[in-house]
């Protein structure tokens, strides 16, 4: 599912909200997650998972074309760990086609 599909689905399930308002809400949520992670904070959505930032130390890598040694700087990368509810739902029932999911989805 991509962002526009998420916005469309939420708008369909909440006919009392304008689509432009749903889009603003989704964008604010994503922006806050990104801001928190940029500050090095962890963002937890209970039952879904947690977003965090992990530090990767600098190292010496290899250029795959030439085999030449290349210094790779340290960097920070996003990390997502699934929540227990999401893991259980995927493992107990397997991955269920979207048309077989109940109306409330995940």
From TrEMBL:
Keywords: DNA recombination, DNA-binding, Transcription, Transcription regulation, Translation regulation. Pfam families: Bac_DNA_binding. One of its GO terms (cellular component) is chromosome. CDD domains: IHF_B (cd13836). HAMAP family: IHF_beta (MF_00381). Heterodimer of an alpha and a beta chain. This protein is one of the two subunits of integration host factor, a specific DNA-binding protein that functions in genetic recombination as well as in transcriptional and translational control. This is Integration host factor subunit beta.
